[in-house]
Amino acid sequence: MRYKRILLKLSGESLGGARGAGLDAERLESYARQVSEVARTGVEIGIVVGGGNIFRGLGGPLAGIDRVKGDQMGMLATMINALALGAALDKEGCPNSVLTAIRAEPVGEYYSTPLAREYLCAGRVVIFGGGTGNPFFTTDTASALRAVEIGAEVLLKGTRVDGVYSADPEKDPSATRFDRLSHDEVYRRGLKVMDLTATTLCKENGLPVVVFNVEVPGNLARVARGEAVGTIVG
Question: Is 38:3 a contact under the CB 8 Å cutoff?
């Protein structure tokens, strides 16, 4: 099944390339090229980016920073990443708009569901920065929320592994990959797909999640065409 509207979640660390920190020009170009390729086929694309390559809110308290302020710093980090990805899409000639969950004009337009849907229908890639705009919520939850709000048919979680495993495949060579799981199975098995809030939001709204390796060129296009890539959760 070819999807008509998708929500792609990219981690901040992935934008940092091999180091997982800062911004990697080659990685940004690769992602922008893949997104542009899919957008040209008529698929409407929303993107949520994390901010862990710049600042991770959960690390704030460890540094003596109040959790609320730490999460707000993390929101600003996601906005930097959103702008960087938007600039990379500009270089590909792919129309895009950055919408932010906190007011930051002229850095980005303030988010509203009608505006996001309007841009998607007009063929623009919409990049969502600022998470949900609230502390104590991850960008995984922001991804689930935005996907539901814009009426996406699927949430695509781009990672550096080819799906969901019984354990971390980078640490445990005996880990086995799942082709399909229910949201309840993810919870029961304690699998690290998304946080519980995001998983619950997807379950309650019947939103499937596809976990796949976005670092392999062409994989995003394959998933958008409905090919069996990665793990389907739902």
Answer: no
pTM: 0.93
- C-alpha 97/C-alpha 83 separation (Å) is 9
Strand-strand pairing, 164-165 and 177-178? antiparallel
Q: Which residues contact 207 (CB under 8 A, 6 or more apart)?
A: 144, 147, 148, 152, 154, 155, 201, 234
Q: Give the CATH architecture of domain 5-233.
A: 3-Layer(aba) Sandwich (3.40)
Distance CA 176, CA 9 (A): 23
Longest dimension (CA), the chain: 50
Match 């799906």 to its residue by tokens: 163
Residues in the chain: 234
Within the chain, strands assigned E span 5-10, 44-49, 96-100, 109-110, 125-129, 154-159, 164-165, 177-178, 180-181, 209-213, 231-233
Q: What's the start-to-end Cα distance of the chain, in Å?
A: 15
Gyration radius of the chain over CA positions: 17
User: Where do the H-state alpha helices sit in 55-205?
Assistant: 67-91, 113-121, 139-150, 183-189, 196-204
Residue 142: φ, ψ to 5°: -60, -40
Q: What's the pLDDT tens digit per position in 73-126? A: 999 999 999 999 999 999 999 999 999 999 999 999 999 999 999 999 999 999
77 C-beta neighbours (distance < 10 Å), count: 24
* CA separation for the pair 101, 88 (Å, rounded): 21
